[in-house]
Design brief:
The protein is built from 15 helices and 17 strands. By secondary structure, it is an alpha/beta fold.
Length: 423
């Protein structure tokens, strides 16, 4: 069955010469042939640069606690494509996924469409079979011409932290935060808009300006909801409905409190039958792969022995910033293994890392669009203790780990995917 899935996916990749081609024409055309399934679902759309997946996973965990049936669409997948297709709180099995793909492929009838667009059409087609479910839909690259932006209505739009990323898709003179905010927020639907904490006041103001004429009910971090750190593994969440004293969620990093709080704010303004206990219990069961994930066992973990072993797919400036806030809170020697895609701002990314004992650059296996580890090492030459190793295993073995040290593998979700496969 795996082989069958692989064959269908290879055919999908050949339907359009480009991996990404920002336009809504093709997806609209196919969805029309599918009976416009996107018009038959109840969705919460999630847009932004960082924290989208984490916010979705927090929402999903709370909704499951409240016995709400969900469909979830996220990208990219980390280990298998099935992760992108969750219906009725379960990932589709290989055979179900293959027959869904084949049905949509037949209806598409070899028309040009990008890989992401046809996957999105498949998701909407299946989601329409569950009209009562809540759909948590993550938007890709930029939202305005993103395949997920064909909904005519939704329950809410969540705007997570926005920063500079995927700049290669914008003309040189438009590679600005203003342009990115415009692409991600100018076409949000009229419903509820929940805006998470942003990395600067100017970004938040830019979002407010862009959505100023949108008559949605708007909820902003710090004005309408907020959180504060408490003692002893507690934090306090507050919005217009009152305050909650909550145990810290089961995900690492201060920035995850921002994502969790945004999820709570969104779910509390929607009439979905969510109570305080659902929130309290839900945030302790969040499943967040490759986002500051602790590896507890496995082949690679055996090489790291008793030391803390984390993977995190952060790959842009803002991701590096929040990751380093977490690293600074730890009192230990820190070693980093890093591989990145070629189109990222490598020097800016690494500039946030302070007090690092060693940096090892590697090639990302099976990724032709990755920068080579040797080139990455060259870019990081101003850092002391930078070296290159060919493979993930060699890199781990080459690091002199003392007791209580931390090993972090970061720079790309694709790299994290390879780590999980090897482990």
């Amino acid at each position: 069955m795996k082989m069958k899935l692989q064959k269908i996916l290879s055919r999908f990749l050949k339907l359009h010469p480009k991996e990404i081609d920002l336009s809504l024409e093709r997806i609209n055309f196919l969805c029309k042939k599918l009976g416009n399934p996107q018009d038959k679902i109840k969705a919460i759309s999630v847009v932004g640069t960082n924290g989208k997946n984490s916010t979705i996973q927090a929402c999903y965990s709370i909704l499951k606690e409240a016995n709400v049936q969900c469909n979830v669409y996220t990208s990219p997948h980390i280990q298998r494509i099935n992760e992108r297709f969750v219906f009725n709180n379960k990932e589709l099995e290989d055979d179900e996924l293959a027959s869904l793909f084949e049905e949509v492929e037949k209806i598409n009838d070899n028309q040009p469409i990008t890989f992401f667009e046809i996957l999105t059409a498949c998701y909407f087609y299946k989601a329409a079979q569950y009209p009562k479910n809540i759909n948590l839909v993550e938007s890709g690259l930029f939202f305005r011409f993103d395949a997920t932006n064909i909904l005519k209505k939704n329950l809410a739009s969540i705007v997570t932290s926005i920063s500079k990323d995927h700049l290669d898709w914008l003309p040189k003179n438009e590679q600005t935060i203003e342009k990115i905010v415009f692409e991600k927020t100018s076409s949000l639907l009229i419903s509820n808009i929940i805006v998470a904490k942003q990395n600067s006041k100017s970004t938040m103001n830019c979002i407010k300006k862009t959505i100023y004429k949108n008559p949605s009910n708007k909820i902003f971090f710090n004005e309408d909801f907020s959180y504060t750190n408490g003692e002893n593994d507690f934090f306090y969440y507050e919005d217009k409905l009152g305050g909650l004293k909550l145990s810290k969620p089961n995900v690492l990093g201060q920035f995850q409190l921002e994502n969790v709080s945004t999820a709570i704010a969104a779910l509390r303004i929607l009439d979905l039958g969510i109570n305080d206990n659902h929130i309290k219990n839900g945030i302790l069961k969040i499943n967040n792969i490759a986002r500051l994930q602790k590896i507890e066992s496995g082949k690679l973990k055996n090489l790291v022995k008793d030391n803390l072993f984390l993977i995190s797919g952060d790959h842009n400036e803002d991701g590096a910033r929040v990751l380093n806030e977490y690293l600074k809170s730890l009192d230990c020697r820190k070693h980093i293994i890093i591989g990145m895609m070629a189109n990222k701002e490598h020097e800016k990314y690494i500039s946030y890392f302070k007090d690092i004992s060693s940096i090892t650059t590697i090639d990302i296996p099976n990724q032709p669009n990755a920068i080579s580890g040797k080139k990455l090492k060259e870019k990081f030459k101003n850092f002391p203790n930078v070296r290159y190793q060919e493979s993930i295993e060699q890199a781990i073995k080459s690091i002199d780990l003392n007791q209580q040290d931390l090993l972090l593998i970061t720079g790309s979700l694709y790299l994290c995917s390879e780590v999980l496969k090897l482990n």
